Amino acid sequence: MKVKSICMSLLMSLACVGIQAEDKNVLPLIPKPSSVEYLGKSLSVNSLKGILVDQRAQASASYLQDALNELVGRKLPIKKGPVKGKTGFVVLRCGSQKDSEAYELKVTQSGVEIRGEGPRGVFYGVTTFMQVMLNEQGALQTDIPTLHIKDAPRFGYRGLMLDPARHFIPADAVKRFIATMAAYKFNVLHFHLSDDQGWRIELKSHPKLHEYSSHYNKPEGTRGYYTQKELKDIVAFAARHQVEVVPEIDMPGHSMGVVTVYPELTCRSVQEMNQPGHEETLKKHPKMKIRLWDTPGVSEALLCASNPKVYKVYSEILGEVCRLFPSPKFHVGGDEAPMDCWKSCPDCQALMKQKQLPKVQDLMSFFFAEMNKILKKYGKQPHYWYELDVPKYPENAVAYAWRMGLSQAAIDRAQKDGFDIICAPGEHAYFDYPNIAGGHPQPNWGMPTTTLERAYQFDPGYGRKAEDQAHILGVEGTLWGECLKSEERLYHMAYPRSFALVEAGWSAMAVRNWEDFTKRVKPHLLKMYKAGLDPYWPKEIYGEKK
Ligand code: TNX
After folding, report:
1. How do residues 376-434 score in pLDDT, each as one tens digit?
2. Could you say which of 101, 117, 163, 195 is catalytic?
3. Within 253-406, where are the H helices?
């Protein structure tokens, strides 16, 4: 008898698991929440009378109102005031924890309640609610399951990097991109605004930079740089979507956007930089003494570490850029800086002697320390593409692990030296790499392939003990722009791999599962196609037919 009842309850619990796991009951939520309890009934979104908000939750109310408008075809009124005990509403409530991203979402037959621990949590509750309405065909459905979701992120930094330096991305397209990433709980747009191929910010202090160094690779009819008004508008738009914009001015390498305008700032001579074959380009741009790069690659013309003018000009440039972006984070690049020109520069060599710097790599640490003095004045924390051979980064630095296969070494080193790190590993999070072999129609430099599955295999904690990953702040996916020539191409490379990445950043390993992920991805791709976007269709998983 006893055995029989144990068997019965085992069977019943298996049946429950079975029901939960049935496709129709597993909503396509990305990133996967910490816990979802299905309550077995349904609610019609059409029956909702309005949106009720408490004082602190107002920021997300109009976002929800617009999103629901698309579905039910009318703007639900937003009412402020006491939210207790009301039925038939979407109720938004906000706790007092300013930076918390945790939230709860309850859908019952009496209405919807979203409670965030802070404003970001409310916003994320709203984005999850919008996904609860997504059906398998990628359309929004009005009859939704009743449920209770409790959710909070694993990591606080979930970023995507855009590179308008290589191919300019007009401001409107940047805003569209932000709106999409925010819907999937990304919270940082890392904006790579300068490189060897361009300078993309309007500067009042150094107008020649945007006037001369923005002429390549820009969609017809666009300026090729962002005006300060546009940048402020992008920052404000991002803030409404709980996205922080982190600017990057890459240095001391990848600096031709500046060096073409001010050749005296590098230790390479104009003769050395001008190679046979550059004459044609220079003829087209008579004001320039050297060529802005019109091809991918790494320039060896570093900013001269010993030239006081470098620090003077950069204190003006950085000052102006710092004031445009309210984020306390500032990315100073620091990647791929071949130090040969410092080795052959008599002034750099003299400086090394004077400062008793034994290796040329120490000069890199000196350079970063000098730049950091400028950033400190504006209350900014320096962020770097981490290079293992740089002996010392400023103590308040944040590093990005990026080089293929070297993340673990970078994480170890950051832990040892006491700074925080963000994981953007080449093998999982480089979304300029093709989705599939041959997936780049443009010529590229034999980039490796990053499949969706490879992107999903990423564990930013690399299975380390909790205390050994406490300094890992989160994840970033990079969309380097050499081969991304259009907005269409940007989405094609970013999605669906960014779904995989954001889940690595948001969801605990215990709730992540590749098979289950592939089931959740499809409706989001179908939704994007309906919206006229062209994300990559992983036919290796779903077959040819969409
Ligand atoms: C390396 S990743 C770079 C970029 C290129 C990218 C192309 C990094 C910090 N630097 O300048 O665009 O490879 O994949």
Report:
1. 999 999 999 999 999 999 999 999 999 999 999 999 999 999 999 999 999 999 999 99
2. 195
3. 256-259, 270-273, 279-284, 308-324, 340-343, 346-354, 360-377
